[in-house]
Amino acid sequence: MNDTLERRSGGQFCAHGDGWRAQPRAVFSAAQKDWVTRAGSLTRHLSTLGRVTVRVTCEKVGLAWRDEARVLRLARRAPVWIREVVLTVDGVSVVAAHSVTPLRASRGVWQAVRRLRTRALAELLYADMTVTRSPIVSRCVDGAHPLYRLAVAQLGPDRPHACVARRSVFTRHRLPLMVTECFLPAMWTMMTY
Q: Where do the annotations place substrate binding (predicted)?
């Protein structure tokens, strides 16, 4: 995989605002700060912890969340392609991920996203030298954010008050693909720092 993506970032989209910050919050643990700021493929980084698998939970045409639509400069009620997956390490769910791109882009420059099935999105993003990435931003998400509801759907009754998440916008031929990744509590319990 190619880690030059971040260095080539000249993206016209900026993923911050609405509580998303360029610097991790002071309340994040050292491990959380490390993981939300890691450049390159999250899947590749997770593979250092064990065997990573991708479980697709949703692929559909829908509407972007309000904060996504604002960043992506989408018209109200503009259709988007949504892909949601859970990344597991040795069978344990550690990340819930949500990707969104304008529907027209999913039929054009980002059409390969619709054919990934259980392959990691990183296979597309880091193999293409025309793709750029905005800076990574992070925040805590709680019940007020749809990402939290997506993440806790993967958990049993023992749910955290909030989860740590990060997002960035990948751009190919001026068309965006926003990727948001929410770290589940099991991620931090399996860490050995």
A: 83, 121, 181
Q: How far is CA 176 from CA 24, 67, 112, 136, 193, in A?
A: 23, 14, 14, 14, 35
Is residue 14 one of the residues assigned to a domain? Answer: no
pLDDT of residue 13: 65
Q: Is 83 annotated as a binding residue?
A: yes
Number of domains in the chain: 1
| pTM of the predicted protein model | 0.88
Q: What is the CATH number of the domain that holds 120?
A: 3.40.1410.10
What residues in the chain have per-residue pLDDT under 70? 1-17, 192-193
What is the pLDDT, as a whole number, of residue 162?
A: 87
Domain of 160 in residue numbering reads as 30-190
Which residue bears the tokens 């479980």?
Answer: 55
Token digits of residue 13 = 């989209």
- Residue 82 placed within a domain: yes
Q: Is 104 annotated as a binding residue?
A: no
